[in-house]
Amino acid sequence: MDLGIKGKTALVCAASKGLGKGCAQALAREGVSLVITARGNEALEATAEEIRKTTGVKVIAVAGDITTPEGRAAALAACPNPDILINNAGGPPPGDFRSWSREDWLKALDANMLTPIELIKAVVDGMIARKYGRIVNITSGAVKMPIPELGLSNGARTGLTGFVAGLARQTVAHNVTINGLLPGPFDTDRLRSNLKFNAQKLGKTEAELERVRMQANPAKRFGSIEEFGAACAFLCSAHAGFITGQNLLLDGGAYPGSI
Question: How do 59-63 and 84-87 pair as beta strands?
Answer without folding.
Answer: unpaired
